[in-house]
Design a protein that fits this description.
Blueprint lengths: L7 H27 L5 H6 L3 E4 L8 E6 L2 E7 L2 H6 L16 H4 L15 E5 L10 E3 L15 E3 L6 E3 L19 E3 L4 E4 L6
Antiparallel strand pairs: 1-9, 2-3, 3-4, 5-6, 6-7, 8-9
């Protein structure tokens, strides 16, 4: 029994319709697949933000946005860490005991207010009226700061000062320490802001 040959015009038509179907399938799939990524609205509403901190050097700060807030990631020097315990008598809440569930997760209720001593993760918004404090990492006398300044942050709006762990000094307008957002390490160099529980 001999096979009937397909004429060349039918073959061309089959190839063309197959290609058109494939292009249409891809065009339909791309928007569908992109829906798996969090939208800008979802990110603003609280989607976690992953950050690579492998290039962060001592004394540097990276700012990322989470829930519409600036989150600072700072690599502190051994000298900055060594100065923290001596500041306790000058601070309003040195052990982060006020509003602990709101401002400081349990794993950050320590002298450094961090998981890893050298890395501070804090929301860069003053707890007074929501201004953003300025970096004043260099120790020593400076305008609007005490002569024995050890480094930290100054809120330019009303003069609140915070140490290198984001703890507020006494007798300042800001009532509380800077917020430490939920976060966790996915690896030595990958940080996840906004989640702190492994699935």
């Amino acid at each position: 029994m001999s096979e009937t040959p397909i004429d060349s015009s039918k073959r061309t038509w089959l190839i063309a319709s197959g290609c058109a179907g494939a292009v249409g399938g891809v065009a339909t799939a791309v928007p569908f697949v992109s829906t798996f990524q969090p939208s800008e609205k979802a990110k603003a509403a609280g989607a976690a933000v992953e950050v690579d901190i492998s290039g962060l050097k001592i004394g540097e700060k990276v700012t990322v946005e989470w829930r519409g807030k600036p989150v600072w990631i700072i690599k502190r020097s051994p000298e900055q860490l060594a100065a923290l315990p001596g500041l306790d008598p000058q601070l309003a809440d040195p052990k982060s005991e006020r509003k602990p569930s709101e401002l400081t997760p349990e794993y950050a209720r320590n002298e450094n207010r961090s998981i890893k001593p050298e890395i501070l993760v804090a929301v860069g918004i003053c707890t007074h009226l929501g201004c953003s404090p300025s970096d004043k990492f260099v120790p020593g006398a400076q305008p609007s700061l005490p002569d024995d300044w050890k480094g930290g942050f100054l809120c330019p709006c009303h003069g609140s000062t915070f140490d290198m762990a984001g703890r507020v000094f006494k007798n300042k307008p800001a009532p509380d320490n800077l917020e430490v957002p939920p976060h966790m390490y996915l690896s030595e160099t990958r940080l996840l802001i906004g989640e702190d529980k492994k699935a």
